[in-house]
Write a structure and sequence with these properties.
The chain is α/β, with parallel strands linked by helices. The chain is 17% helix and 9% strand.
């Protein structure tokens, strides 16, 4: 494990196996956690601002009020994790794995969710406002009864309707061309 200098605060936990560890409230800002294993961890209140999380594994972890501001999330695995009040505002989450995750009060507003599957997710009071790369079909799949999704708030219903309308308008435009 390498600690950064004053010019580059943070620590290097790349490729480390930290599965099952409770690291609530820890400040890992400006760190490198690429390819690390945080499966089955509890990260309540952790600060992961400006952190490299490329291919980091958070499978089956509990993330409560975790901040991912300006984090690098390339193919990060959140499958079957519980994400409560976790902030992904303006994050590029292209090809991240979120299947089967519990999303309660999570914020994905203005995030890029291209290639992200929400199938099997439990979604409650989660904000997808202006999220890019997500389609009506993806949200519909996540919110189907067989996926055991809980009730969702009115804002999310409005977002789904807006996505559906935009996709219908795009289809009509393509047919008329």
């Amino acid at each position: 494990m390498r600690f950064f200098t004053d010019e580059h605060p943070g620590i290097d936990l790349s490729y480390q196996d930290l599965s099952g560890v409770n690291i609530g409230g820890i400040n890992l800002a400006n760190s490198s956690l690429a390819f690390a294993n945080f499966s089955r961890c509890s990260l309540g209140g952790a600060d992961l601002t400006d952190t490299d999380l490329t291919r980091t594994n958070f499978e089956y972890s509990y993330l409560y009020r975790v901040t991912f501001e300006n984090a690098k999330l390339n193919q990060t695995n959140f499958s079957n994790a519980t994400l409560v009040s976790t902030i992904f505002f303006r994050q590029d989450m292209t090809n991240c794995l979120i299947k089967g995750a519990g999303l309660k009060g999570a914020v994905f507003s203005d995030a890029n969710l291209k290639g992200v599957s929400l199938s099997g997710c439990v979604i409650e009071h989660t904000n997808f406002l202006n999220a890019k790369g997500i389609t009506f079909g993806q949200l519909k799949e996540a919110l189907s009864v067989e996926n055991n999704c809980l009730g969702f708030n009115f804002k999310l219903q409005k977002q789904i309707k807006a996505l559906q309308k935009a996709e219908e308008n795009e289809s009509e435009t393509n047919l008329n061309s």
